[in-house]
Amino acid sequence: MDPELLVSIYASTAVSVGIILAAAGLGSALGWGLICSKYLEGIARQPEMRPQLMGQMLFTGGLMEAFPMIVLGMSMWFIFANPFTGAALAAIGS
Q1: Which of 26, 44, 83, 84 is deepest in the core (most CB within 10 A)?
Q2: Which of 67, 75, 83, 76 is nearest to 30 (CA)?
Q3: What positions are marked as the site Reversibly protonated during proton transport?
């Protein structure tokens, strides 16, 4: 087994995981910004709806925060149980 191949696979995986986690964090931050801005717009239009809007905002935010956690789990899978190394070993017959 060529050690340079494994180093290349691990390096590419690390860079890819970093990009994926950054995109998930950015998406989550933008999502929270949009949710909160719409919440404030709703309160400005109908102040008496504040408790109901707050509940909906927190529920939607919780659902939105599930996505980065799923992405984090998948990223940890790629880092610690990299499926590409097994495929590379099988392809070269080692």
Answers
A1: 84
A2: 67
A3: 65
Reading the block at residue 87, the tokens are 């495929």
Report helix, strand or coil for 14: helix
| Sign of the CA dihedral with 50 first, then 55, 57, and 58 last | positive
Domains of the chain: 25-80 (1.20.20.10)
Q: How far apart are CA 7 and CA 70, in angstroms?
A: 26
Cβ–Cβ under 8 Å, residues 3 and 14: no
pLDDT digits (tens, 9 = 90+) for 32-62: 999 999 999 999 999 999 999 999 999 999 9
Please state, in angstroms and rounded to a whole number, the distance separating the CA atoms of residues 53 and 43: 8
